[in-house]
Design a protein that fits this description.
The structure is a homodimer. By secondary structure, chain A is α/β, with parallel strands linked by helices. The first copy, chain A, is built from 12 helices and 14 strands. Chain A folds into 2 domains: about 210 residues, Isopropylmalate Dehydrogenase; about 130 residues, Isopropylmalate Dehydrogenase. Helix content of chain A is about 40%, strand content about 20%. In chain A, the strands form 3 sheets. A 10-stranded mixed beta sheet of chain A has the order 2-1-3-12-11-4-5-10-8-9, with helices on both faces. In chain A, strands 6-7 form a two-stranded antiparallel sheet. In chain A, strands 13-14 form a two-stranded parallel ribbon. Bound molecules: 3-isopropylmalic acid (2 copies). One 3-isopropylmalic acid sits at the interface of chains B and A.
Chain lengths: ~350, ~350
C-alpha cells in the first residue's frame, strides 16, 4: 500500500523548496522502494489566486485523504491588501483547525557543522537539542468572541479570547509526556499562571496528566522566565509544552538560538498522528524565485513526516544522514554560508542531498 | 519643596536592596542637597503579613500622595499556597492598575564592563541600548470576562480576555513616540496583527498617532519575529512599544541578552509622569537574607525616578556615573562577578556607590 502525500507549495520560496522535497521523495521511491504517491494543491496566496480562497475546498478534501501533507510556506506582499478572511495566513490557520492538528512539534537543534552561525556563545548552545510542543488549534488564535466593536460610549475596542477547555489541555499535555518519554524524560510546561486563569486550569490539568507518567520529571515555568532561560541557558530544557501564542513566540526564539532557521522542520499532528509538515521559516518573499533559498528545513520536514506519520523510520534516518553528509561536505546555501564553505543554490543543495542518500 | 518618596521593600531580597536605595537617597540629601522625604509601606507578601492584603489600603493611600514609589520585589514560596486574590503578585498588579501606571519603560543596556556576562557573542550585543515600552494596565492582565467555568456539557474551561480600547492604545503609542523622539527616533510596534483583531486595532491606532510624529521612523513587527530578532540582531532596535503580555515576554528576553539582569531598572508611569520604579529582576527567594543580592538595578531605578518623576536629571546623572565608576573599579556582586574582579555583597556594593557619588 502506497503512502499518499499532498504537497502544498504555497507562496514565496515555497514552490522552490518543495520542488526539492519532491525530488527527494522521487529518489526514495525509485532507489529505496518507498511506496509513495504525490499530489499537489494550492494554499495561501496561491490558493487565493487559483480558487479565490486561501484554503480552497479541493485542497482541504485532498488533505483529509492524504497520509501526510507537506507545506512550503504562505504569505507575501502581493496579498497584504486582501481582506482579513482572504489573507494567506487564514489558509494556514484554517487547515490546522480543520484537520485538528493540535500538536505542533518544533525541534530546535544546533547542527555542529553550523555552530558558528548562532548569535550565542558556543558553550551556551553547543549540542542544543530541544523540542517545543506548541498547542496549535486553541487559545487566542481561535477563541470566540473576537473582533473590533464600538462600545456604548462610542469608544472602539479590539478583543480576543484566550480560552482552553480541559480536554484540549489534556491531549496536548499527554502528547508532551509521550514525547518526553522518547527523549530525556523532562517536560517543562510553560504558562502564566500567576496572571491568567486559563493558565491556572492549564497547570492543574498538566499536573493531573503527570500522574500517568511517573518517569517524566515535570516542571512549570512562567512564560517570561522561559523567554529568559532560553537566552541564558537553553540546554536546561528537554521538552517544553505550551499554549498556542506562547509557543509561537518561544519556538521562534528557540529556533533563532541555533542561528540557522533555514534548517528547522516542524510537524503538526492530529490525534491519530496524521499531520502537516513544514519548515519553520516563512515564505521569504525577498528572495523568492532566485533559487537561493535553503531547502534543508523542507527536506528535514519530509524526514519528520516519514518518521511520525508514515511509519518509515529507516527512510527518515536515511534523509537525515544525507543532510548531515552534505553539511560535512561543506555545501551551504547563502543563509548558512561561512568562510571556507561552498556556496550553492536551492537546486544544487537538493541534488546534493539526493546524491548523498 | 521636598519630593515625597514611598519605599516598598516587598519580599525576598526586596528589603536588602531597597536598604541600599535608602542609603543612596540619604547620601544625596545630605551631601548633594536633594530635597526628599522617605516613607515606607508594605506590599506583596509583606503586605499580606502586615495587613492581610497584598496591597493594603494604607499603602495605596501613601502611594497616591507620593511623588515617586520605589519597589523592591514581591513574591516567595511562603505565599504560594495563598488564595489567588491574596498572592503577592496581586499587590503588584493592583498598584499598577490603581495608579494607572500604563507606561512601563524597560531599558536593556549592556554595560561595557559586564559585556562578557552575556550569553550572546560580543559583536551581537556590544553597545546594546534598547528601550522596551510595555503597556502595563490593559490586555489579558486585566481584561474581563475571565475565570474558570463549567460549560453546559460539563466540560471545564479557563478563559481570559485580551482587550484594548482605542484611547488605551493611543496613550501608550504616544508615549512610545515621545520616548523615540528623545532617543534614536526609531519606533518598532510589536503585535500579532496577522492573527488577533486586538492587534489590528493596535496597528491602526499606532499608524494614526504616527502622523503627529513625522520625525520618527515607525515599523511594525509580529511578536514571534520580534522574539527572533532580539536574539539574532538586537541592536537593530531603538524603542519597541507593545502590549502588556508581549512586553512581559520580550522585555525579559531583552534583559537577559545583557547577561546581567541584576543591573536593569524599570519605570512604570502614569499620564502625569508620576511613577513606580523597580528593578526588573524578581524577589529571588533562594538568596534572600544572605546579603549577596545585587542592589545596582534598584539604585539605577532611583536614578530613573530622579530623572522621570522628580525632574532631578543632574542627580540622576550623578547616580549613574557613580555606578559606572564602581563597575570600573571592579567591584561585583556574585551575579555579575567574573575572574579578576572583587566579589562584594549587597551592602558593600551600596556603600561603594555612595562613596563614588
Ligand atoms: C503565519 C502565522 C499565522 C503563524 C502563526 O502565528 O501560527 C506562524 O507564525 C507560525 O508560527 O506558523
Ligand atoms: C510578577 C508578574 C505578575 C509580573 C508581570 O507579569 O507583569 C512580572 O513578571 C513583571 O514583569 O513585572
Amino acid at each position: 500500500m502506497s503512502h499518499k502525500i499532498l504537497i502544498l507549495p504555497g507562496d514565496g520560496i515555497g514552490p522552490e523548496i518543495v520542488a526539492e522535497a519532491t525530488r527527494l521523495l522521487h529518489a526514495l521511491k525509485d532507489r529505496f522502494a518507498l511506496a509513495v504517491e504525490l499530489e499537489e494543491a494550492a494554499i495561501g496566496g496561491a490558493g487565493y489566486d487559483a480558487a479565490g480562497e486561501p484554503l480552497p475546498q479541493a485542497t482541504l478534501d485532498l488533505a483529509r485523504e492524504a497520509d501526510g501533507v507537506l507545506l512550503g510556506a504562505v504569505g507575501g506582499p502581493r496579498y497584504d491588501q486582501l481582506p482579513w478572511e482572504k489573507r494567506p495566513e487564514r489558509g494556514l490557520l484554517a487547515i490546522r483547525s480543520q484537520l485538528e492538528l493540535f500538536a505542533n512539534l518544533r525541534p530546535a537543534i544546533l547542527y555542529p557543522q553550523l555552530a558558528s552561525a548562532s548569535a550565542l556563545k558556543p558553550d551556551i548552545v553547543g549540542g542544543l537539542d530541544l523540542m517545543i510542543l506548541r498547542e496549535l488549534t486553541g487559545g487566542a488564535y481561535f477563541g470566540q468572541p473576537r473582533g473590533i466593536r464600538t462600545r456604548e460610549d462610542g469608544v472602539r475596542e479590539g478583543f480576543n479570547t484566550l480560552i482552553y477547555s480541559e480536554p484540549e489541555i489534556e491531549r496536548i499535555a499527554r502528547s508532551g509526556f509521550e514525547i518526553a518519554m522518547k527523549r530525556g524524560r523532562r517536560l517543562c510546561s510553560v504558562d502564566k499562571a500567576n496572571v491568567l486563569e486559563v493558565s491556572q486550569l492549564w497547570r492543574e490539568v498538566v499536573e493531573r496528566v503527570a500522574r500517568d507518567y511517573p518517569d517524566v520529571a515535570l516542571s512549570h515555568m512562567y512564560v517570561d522566565n522561559a523567554a529568559m532561560q532560553l537566552v541564558r541557558a537553553p540546554k536546561q530544557f528537554d521538552v517544553i509544552v505550551t499554549e498556542n501564542m506562547f509557543g509561537d513566540i518561544l519556538s521562534d526564539a528557540a529556533a533563532m538560538l541555533t542561528g540557522s532557521i533555514g534548517m528547522l522542520p516542524s510537524a503538526s499532528l492530529d490525534a491519530q498522528g496524521k499531520g502537516l509538515y513544514e519548515p519553520i521559516h516563512g515564505s521569504a518573499p525577498d528572495i523568492a524565485g532566485q533559487g537561493m533559498a535553503n531547502p534543508l528545513a523542507t527536506l528535514l520536514s519530509v524526514a519528520m513526516m516519514l518518521r511520525y506519520s508514515l511509519g518509515e523510520a529507516a527512510q527518515a534516518d536515511r534523509v537525515e544522514a544525507a543532510v548531515g553528509r552534505v553539511l560535512d561536505q561543506g555545501q551551504r546555501t547563502p543563509d548558512i554560508w561561512s568562510e571556507g564553505c561552498a556556496k550553492v543554490g536551492t537546486r544544487e543543495m537538493g541534488e546534493a542531498v539526493v546524491a548523498a542518500l
